[in-house]
Amino acid sequence: MNNYGKKWKERIRKGETVIGGHVFLPNPAMAEAMAFYGYEYIWLDGEHGSFDKETIHSHLTAINNAGAGAFVRVTAGEPWLIKPVVEMGPDGIVFPQISTVEEARKALEACIYPPEGKRGYGPRRASRYGKMSDREYIDSVDESLVKIIQIEHVDGVNNLEKILDLKGIDGIVVGPYDLTASLNLLGQVTHPDVYACFEKIIAACKARSVPCGVSTGYYGDEYIRFWLDRKINFIFCGDDIAFIKAGTESTLAKLKNFIPKDASAR
Q1: Distance, CA of 219 to CA of 199 (rounded, Å)
Q2: pLDDT (tens digit, 9 = 90+) per residue, 209-223?
Protein backbone atom coordinates (compact mmCIF):
# COMPACT_ATOMS: atom_id res chain seq x y z
CA MET A 1 0.00 0.00 0.00
CA ASN A 2 1.20 3.46 -0.87
CA ASN A 3 1.53 6.00 1.91
CA TYR A 4 -0.69 8.71 0.48
CA GLY A 5 -0.86 10.64 3.75
CA LYS A 6 2.90 11.04 3.81
CA LYS A 7 2.90 11.98 0.13
CA TRP A 8 0.25 14.62 0.84
CA LYS A 9 2.48 16.27 3.42
CA GLU A 10 5.56 16.04 1.23
CA ARG A 11 3.79 17.67 -1.71
CA ILE A 12 2.50 20.52 0.42
CA ARG A 13 6.00 21.11 1.83
CA LYS A 14 7.20 21.43 -1.77
CA GLY A 15 4.61 24.15 -2.38
CA GLU A 16 2.29 22.09 -4.57
CA THR A 17 -1.48 22.54 -4.54
CA VAL A 18 -3.17 19.19 -3.92
CA ILE A 19 -6.55 18.49 -5.55
CA GLY A 20 -9.30 16.30 -4.15
CA GLY A 21 -12.98 15.51 -4.66
CA HIS A 22 -15.92 14.40 -2.51
CA VAL A 23 -17.95 11.19 -2.34
CA PHE A 24 -21.38 10.86 -0.75
CA LEU A 25 -22.81 7.70 -2.32
CA PRO A 26 -22.32 4.36 -0.51
CA ASN A 27 -21.17 2.22 -3.45
CA PRO A 28 -17.34 2.22 -3.50
CA ALA A 29 -17.31 1.89 -7.28
CA MET A 30 -18.11 5.60 -7.56
CA ALA A 31 -15.14 6.57 -5.41
CA GLU A 32 -12.94 4.14 -7.31
CA ALA A 33 -14.05 5.65 -10.62
CA MET A 34 -13.28 9.19 -9.47
CA ALA A 35 -9.79 8.06 -8.52
CA PHE A 36 -9.31 6.45 -11.94
CA TYR A 37 -10.59 9.64 -13.60
CA GLY A 38 -7.78 11.62 -11.98
CA TYR A 39 -8.69 12.83 -8.51
CA GLU A 40 -5.56 12.59 -6.36
CA TYR A 41 -7.45 12.43 -3.06
CA ILE A 42 -11.03 11.43 -2.30
CA TRP A 43 -12.96 12.83 0.68
CA LEU A 44 -15.49 10.35 2.05
CA ASP A 45 -18.22 12.40 3.65
CA GLY A 46 -19.14 10.46 6.76
CA GLU A 47 -20.89 13.53 8.12
CA HIS A 48 -23.55 13.85 5.41
CA GLY A 49 -23.14 10.67 3.36
CA SER A 50 -24.83 7.32 4.07
CA PHE A 51 -21.74 5.45 5.27
CA ASP A 52 -21.52 2.80 7.96
CA LYS A 53 -18.19 1.38 9.15
CA GLU A 54 -18.13 -1.46 6.66
CA THR A 55 -18.86 0.94 3.79
CA ILE A 56 -16.04 3.25 4.84
CA HIS A 57 -13.66 0.29 4.94
CA SER A 58 -14.69 -0.76 1.40
CA HIS A 59 -14.22 2.77 0.09
CA LEU A 60 -10.74 3.10 1.58
CA THR A 61 -9.67 -0.11 -0.12
CA ALA A 62 -11.19 0.85 -3.49
CA ILE A 63 -9.73 4.34 -3.50
CA ASN A 64 -6.22 3.28 -2.55
CA ASN A 65 -6.26 0.43 -5.06
CA ALA A 66 -7.23 2.93 -7.76
CA GLY A 67 -4.17 5.02 -6.96
CA ALA A 68 -5.54 7.84 -4.81
CA GLY A 69 -5.48 8.86 -1.18
CA ALA A 70 -8.58 8.47 0.98
CA PHE A 71 -9.69 11.01 3.57
CA VAL A 72 -12.68 10.47 5.87
CA ARG A 73 -14.74 13.26 7.35
CA VAL A 74 -16.16 11.73 10.51
CA THR A 75 -19.62 12.60 11.81
CA ALA A 76 -18.17 14.63 14.68
CA GLY A 77 -14.91 15.06 16.53
CA GLU A 78 -15.85 12.55 19.21
CA PRO A 79 -13.25 9.89 20.18
CA TRP A 80 -15.75 7.00 19.98
CA LEU A 81 -16.56 7.97 16.38
CA ILE A 82 -12.93 8.55 15.42
CA LYS A 83 -11.47 5.36 16.91
CA PRO A 84 -12.85 2.74 14.48
CA VAL A 85 -12.10 4.96 11.48
CA VAL A 86 -8.41 5.51 12.23
CA GLU A 87 -8.00 1.75 12.80
CA MET A 88 -9.12 1.25 9.18
CA GLY A 89 -6.08 3.15 7.95
CA PRO A 90 -7.39 6.24 6.14
CA ASP A 91 -4.77 8.57 4.71
CA GLY A 92 -6.44 11.53 6.34
CA ILE A 93 -9.20 12.33 8.77
CA VAL A 94 -11.29 15.51 8.86
CA PHE A 95 -13.01 16.80 11.99
CA PRO A 96 -16.12 18.89 11.16
CA GLN A 97 -17.62 21.85 12.97
CA ILE A 98 -14.61 22.65 15.15
CA SER A 99 -15.14 25.98 16.86
CA THR A 100 -13.14 25.84 20.11
CA VAL A 101 -9.72 24.80 21.34
CA GLU A 102 -11.31 22.12 23.50
CA GLU A 103 -13.13 20.55 20.54
CA ALA A 104 -9.98 20.57 18.44
CA ARG A 105 -7.84 19.09 21.23
CA LYS A 106 -10.28 16.24 21.90
CA ALA A 107 -10.42 15.31 18.22
CA LEU A 108 -6.64 15.40 17.76
CA GLU A 109 -5.96 13.39 20.93
CA ALA A 110 -8.19 10.61 19.62
CA CYS A 111 -5.70 10.13 16.76
CA ILE A 112 -2.45 10.41 18.73
CA TYR A 113 -1.01 7.80 21.08
CA PRO A 114 0.00 8.61 24.66
CA PRO A 115 1.68 10.51 26.14
CA GLU A 116 0.80 13.26 23.63
CA GLY A 117 -2.69 11.92 22.96
CA LYS A 118 -5.30 9.45 24.15
CA ARG A 119 -5.72 7.04 21.25
CA GLY A 120 -6.25 3.43 22.26
CA TYR A 121 -4.11 0.84 20.53
CA GLY A 122 -5.79 -1.49 18.07
CA PRO A 123 -4.91 -0.81 14.41
CA ARG A 124 -6.21 -3.32 11.89
CA ARG A 125 -6.01 -2.29 8.25
CA ALA A 126 -3.98 0.70 9.47
CA SER A 127 -1.06 -1.63 10.33
CA ARG A 128 -1.61 -3.75 7.21
CA TYR A 129 -3.42 -6.30 9.38
CA GLY A 130 -0.32 -6.83 11.49
CA LYS A 131 2.16 -6.90 8.60
CA MET A 132 3.72 -3.83 10.20
CA SER A 133 5.16 -4.39 13.67
CA ASP A 134 3.70 -2.41 16.56
CA ARG A 135 6.86 -0.34 16.76
CA GLU A 136 6.93 0.36 13.03
CA TYR A 137 3.32 1.49 13.02
CA ILE A 138 3.62 3.65 16.13
CA ASP A 139 6.75 5.36 14.77
CA SER A 140 5.19 6.11 11.39
CA VAL A 141 1.55 6.93 12.07
CA ASP A 142 1.95 10.61 12.92
CA GLU A 143 3.57 11.22 9.53
CA SER A 144 1.22 8.98 7.56
CA LEU A 145 -2.12 10.17 8.98
CA VAL A 146 -3.21 13.66 7.94
CA LYS A 147 -5.28 15.34 10.65
CA ILE A 148 -7.42 18.23 9.42
CA ILE A 149 -9.51 20.64 11.46
CA GLN A 150 -12.54 22.04 9.65
CA ILE A 151 -13.52 25.63 10.36
CA GLU A 152 -17.11 26.25 9.31
CA HIS A 153 -18.57 28.58 11.93
CA VAL A 154 -17.78 32.18 12.77
CA ASP A 155 -16.90 31.09 16.32
CA GLY A 156 -14.21 28.85 14.86
CA VAL A 157 -12.88 31.76 12.83
CA ASN A 158 -12.67 33.91 15.93
CA ASN A 159 -10.94 31.16 17.91
CA LEU A 160 -8.64 30.01 15.12
CA GLU A 161 -5.41 31.56 16.39
CA LYS A 162 -5.80 29.72 19.71
CA ILE A 163 -6.69 26.50 17.89
CA LEU A 164 -3.54 26.80 15.79
CA ASP A 165 -1.45 26.74 18.97
CA LEU A 166 -2.28 23.03 19.33
CA LYS A 167 0.27 20.47 18.22
CA GLY A 168 -0.68 17.80 15.71
CA ILE A 169 -2.73 19.85 13.24
CA ASP A 170 -1.75 18.97 9.67
CA GLY A 171 -4.18 21.32 8.00
CA ILE A 172 -7.13 23.66 8.30
CA VAL A 173 -9.98 23.28 5.83
CA VAL A 174 -12.69 25.88 5.34
CA GLY A 175 -16.33 24.78 5.14
CA PRO A 176 -17.87 27.71 3.23
CA TYR A 177 -21.54 26.76 3.26
CA ASP A 178 -21.98 26.23 6.98
CA LEU A 179 -19.84 29.29 7.57
CA THR A 180 -22.34 31.36 5.60
CA ALA A 181 -25.13 29.96 7.77
CA SER A 182 -23.33 31.03 10.95
CA LEU A 183 -23.27 34.56 9.54
CA ASN A 184 -27.00 34.45 8.66
CA LEU A 185 -26.01 34.47 4.99
CA LEU A 186 -26.87 30.88 4.10
CA GLY A 187 -25.57 29.98 0.65
CA GLN A 188 -24.05 33.39 -0.09
CA VAL A 189 -20.49 32.10 -0.45
CA THR A 190 -19.31 35.21 -2.34
CA HIS A 191 -20.74 37.76 0.10
CA PRO A 192 -18.12 40.32 1.26
CA ASP A 193 -18.58 39.33 4.92
CA VAL A 194 -17.97 35.70 4.03
CA TYR A 195 -14.90 36.59 1.99
CA ALA A 196 -13.62 38.55 4.99
CA CYS A 197 -13.80 35.36 7.08
CA PHE A 198 -12.00 33.42 4.36
CA GLU A 199 -9.23 36.01 4.35
CA LYS A 200 -8.92 35.88 8.12
CA ILE A 201 -8.59 32.08 8.10
CA ILE A 202 -6.01 32.07 5.32
CA ALA A 203 -3.94 34.81 6.98
CA ALA A 204 -3.93 33.05 10.36
CA CYS A 205 -2.80 29.77 8.80
CA LYS A 206 -0.05 31.40 6.76
CA ALA A 207 1.21 33.26 9.83
CA ARG A 208 1.59 29.92 11.64
CA SER A 209 2.78 27.98 8.55
CA VAL A 210 -0.17 25.60 8.87
CA PRO A 211 -1.49 24.23 5.53
CA CYS A 212 -4.85 25.69 4.57
CA GLY A 213 -7.45 24.57 2.06
CA VAL A 214 -11.13 24.55 1.21
CA SER A 215 -13.87 21.96 0.73
CA THR A 216 -16.31 23.39 -1.76
CA GLY A 217 -18.55 23.09 -4.75
CA TYR A 218 -17.71 24.86 -8.01
CA TYR A 219 -19.42 28.21 -7.43
CA GLY A 220 -18.04 29.90 -10.51
CA ASP A 221 -14.62 30.66 -11.94
CA GLU A 222 -14.11 33.85 -9.94
CA TYR A 223 -14.86 32.06 -6.70
CA ILE A 224 -12.34 29.29 -7.42
CA ARG A 225 -9.79 31.87 -8.57
CA PHE A 226 -10.21 33.64 -5.23
CA TRP A 227 -8.87 30.57 -3.44
CA LEU A 228 -6.12 29.70 -5.87
CA ASP A 229 -4.86 33.29 -6.09
CA ARG A 230 -4.25 33.11 -2.34
CA LYS A 231 -2.04 30.08 -2.85
CA ILE A 232 -3.97 27.72 -0.63
CA ASN A 233 -2.33 24.34 -0.16
CA PHE A 234 -5.22 22.09 -1.13
CA ILE A 235 -8.71 22.17 -2.56
CA PHE A 236 -11.47 19.56 -2.45
CA CYS A 237 -13.97 20.48 -5.17
CA GLY A 238 -16.76 18.56 -6.86
CA ASP A 239 -18.66 15.43 -5.81
CA ASP A 240 -20.19 12.26 -7.20
CA ILE A 241 -23.82 13.43 -6.94
CA ALA A 242 -23.06 16.74 -8.66
CA PHE A 243 -21.30 14.93 -11.48
CA ILE A 244 -24.23 12.55 -11.99
CA LYS A 245 -26.64 15.49 -11.96
CA ALA A 246 -24.62 17.51 -14.47
CA GLY A 247 -24.09 14.58 -16.82
CA THR A 248 -27.71 13.45 -16.64
CA GLU A 249 -29.17 16.91 -17.22
CA SER A 250 -26.77 17.63 -20.08
CA THR A 251 -27.43 14.33 -21.86
CA LEU A 252 -31.20 14.55 -21.48
CA ALA A 253 -31.24 18.14 -22.75
CA LYS A 254 -29.29 17.13 -25.86
CA LEU A 255 -31.48 14.09 -26.52
CA LYS A 256 -34.68 16.10 -26.20
CA ASN A 257 -33.43 18.51 -28.86
CA PHE A 258 -33.72 15.67 -31.38
CA ILE A 259 -37.27 14.72 -30.40
CA PRO A 260 -40.02 16.79 -32.06
CA LYS A 261 -42.23 18.56 -29.58
CA ASP A 262 -45.19 18.10 -31.94
CA ALA A 263 -46.24 14.47 -31.68
CA SER A 264 -47.70 14.58 -35.22
CA ALA A 265 -44.23 15.32 -36.62
CA ARG A 266 -42.89 11.98 -35.41
Answers
A1: 17
A2: 999 999 999 999 999
